[in-house]
Request: fold
Amino acid sequence: MRKFLIVLAVLVLATSLSAQVRTGNIYGKIVDTDGNALPGVTVTLTGVLTAPVTSISSAEGVFRFLSLAPARDYTLKAELEGFRTEIQENIIVVLGANVEVTMTMQMGALEEEVTVTAITPVIDSKRTTVGENVTRDVLQSLPSARDPWVVLQQAPGVYVDRENIGGSESGQQASFAARGGGSNQWAMDGIVITDPSAIASPSYYDFDAFEEMNITTGGSDVTVQTGGIQMNLVTRRGGNRVSIGGRIYITDEKFQSENLTDELKAEGLERTNVIRNIKDYGFNLGGPLFVDRAWWWLSIGAQDIKTTNLVGVADDTLLINYAAKLNIQLVPENRCEAIMHIGQKEKWGRSSSYSFPGGWHQTGMYHFGSPIVKFQDEHMFGDSLFLSVKYSFANAGFNLIPMDDEDRVIMTERNIKDGIWENSYFSYQCKRPVSQFIFGGSYFNDVLFGASHEFKFGFDYADRAQQGLWDSPGQLLTRYNYHTASIDITGDNNPDIIPAMKRFEFWRGGWDYGAVSAYAGYLSDTITFGRFNLILGLRYDYQKPS
Reply:
């Protein structure tokens, strides 16, 4: 499969951003009291989540700090001989957005300081993506169930196929769409983690592990392969202060009412879906390994969801999630990051129905759960070139075993009276490994052809596979001549004992395998003339299936 895409856009007051991001940026300009650009100003960025980083303003007075973790306490300090020191505090950086700062410096002694409490602008003039940012403060205050699909439901224009009452559906993935549908994409900490077979999330999550979520429904740039909804998750990270947290939420059967009316009973409905008990609990801890150099963070969370369905069968789910992150910044220009996320799901009674009352017992492919790992290194060369390299691996495999036949030995039988096949269920196990390598960068030139340019370039390679193995129902074991037989075969009135024929087994299952090697390259240029921007983008995709 080949895909060739050229994007040409002319926009006012806007520059597009990638939807596969885990950070934000600060773009700034230094001017004097008359509005003239000030070159050579030393600008220092500090914050709890970063080591101090310094930039020198260009001839146009421009400076920039890229790839900053979402936070609410960044501080900028501008210093130049003959001018008062200018400080802006409490700058808020959110996921996938740019903060534009103008710092005005006054003539005076260097020892004099002017401190301003910064306010994040409501309009981000360097962003064209259509979507919603949900910060950790908002995540923790939502009066709803606790999973990313519920957050998706809050985004304007996104339609979700179910209501997650009290967390009863948190062990299931909701289908969702916006603006007519499309190939939705999941990303976490800057890497694509979409399940290659189901085109869905490869895991479930500890809700308290997230720093921020970003939902994009349109306007993604050439770094994103598909249209549709981009669900971007960013996990928390450690800082220079030790942080510790925990929670426990309990939803019990006593907390709910019953809506089974007499009219419904008259129609034959005997029961409703019932929450027997839901527990959501977890713990997280983070802090500095070395102050201003290395930070660590980890969490563990569990959701124990016990419900009863309309058939009257228990439909229970246990979700256990582990997350860990290590950030290293040995020199101000270089940042390394390693993350690990493991989602373990076990479910009893999946797809239970009147014809299949027991449902399946779902387990993970691995004992510890489905892994997602990422390693990333990024470096800022001077004030104009930024490079990043990432490698990631994920595997969303799982097993489905019939609850009524967990040893997988029951044979299919024909029920003549009811005209149905009984015990006609199958078992299934699959692997869905994804390996991905991403190289990308940005180059800035503020004077080329009399305009400001931001070049973005990159190359992606991904190897995605799906392997399935299933046992067909009733084809696992066949037995003949279970007993010995007495028969006179010689005519001497002495019966001969014929030994039982040995049983034999015969398996008629199935196996399938599919994979794709995907290559992508992209290049874009954002050309800025004052408040007018021209975006040129080119993307090439080549996919080789097998």
